[in-house]
Description:
Layout: H1 10-23, H2 36-43, H3 47-59, E1 63-66, E2 70-73, E3 82-85, H4 89-98, E4 100-110, H5 113-119, E5 126-135, E6 141-149, H6 151-161, H7 168-176, E7 182-191, H8 194-200, E8 207-216, E9 222-231, E10 235-238
Helix pairs in contact: 1-3, 2-3, 6-7
Amino acid sequence: xxxxxxxxxxxxxxxxxxxxxxxxxxxxLGERIPPEPELAARFEVSRETLRNxxxxxxxxGLVSRRKGDGxxxxxxxxxxxFDTSLGSLEELTQYGRDAVRDVSATAEVTVDxxxxxxxxxxxxxxxxxxxxxRRAADGxxxxxxxxxxxxxxxxxxxxxxGRSARLISELxxxxxxxxxxxVVQQVRAIPLPAEPAAALGLExxxxxxxFVRRYFDVAGEQFEATVGVHPGESFSYRTTLVRxxx
Length: 246
């Protein structure tokens, strides 16, 4: 049986129509687009549906919306975004295939108290630290990361790093037999630090998202920690939540 076609939400169709109007020069840069009541009447939708569409257009960087000033055109084409949705280990693996990895530096470090709190590795332990940049298909840098591994694990995958876009956890499973059973992830908003800002070609202190992922095997032992930084204005992240027992 064929799967039913998923109908695109009306607000998204309206957002695409507005984006097309902007791209075609329907409203000049810096000028206000028509007010909400006029646009709602044009598309024959409620004000709430229209507002959802405008929020979408704003998220693409095409307009700015300020109370008392209306909605103004800021760009004619959308800001390029690296968009990902991670709801399972399988989708995390696909993310690794969608963004190519460059390893810019490797070093051995002793975990201090601060790094232990971030990564979950014991203070005083020695870890290999890989500094990496992920790039989209067009070469644009989309994230900067530091990956922490046991030195022997880093040595086991050293020859693979430069020629494989797969996740490091995948490479470890192949080379060492240690498969990922669980990933604990923490996300927070931060000002972009100096080193990732330079690697990503962005201004230090600009908005960013920090992802800390800790990888555990079936025995419950942590074998990898990744601290990744993504530009806030060019990265979106979606999570699907399902009520247990439903």
